[in-house]
Amino acid sequence: MSRWLAPLLGAVGLLTLVVGIVWAEWDAASMGGVSVVGCGAVLLAAAGGIAAVHEGVVRRRRRPVPRR
Prior knowledge:
By secondary structure, the protein is an all-alpha fold. The protein has 2 helices and no strands.
């Protein structure tokens, strides 16, 4: 599941981050875009964490068995 979840979460986080930055630039009177930027940054961090955990699990599982 995490094979496709991390890239999907990363793409959604990146889009959310960009939308929040554009919103914050266009609407300087309100602070609505700032929370969207924060959500995008959290989603990107979560995607990075999921990808790192998945890589650690996969590498540990694929470690070759030493032969005698």
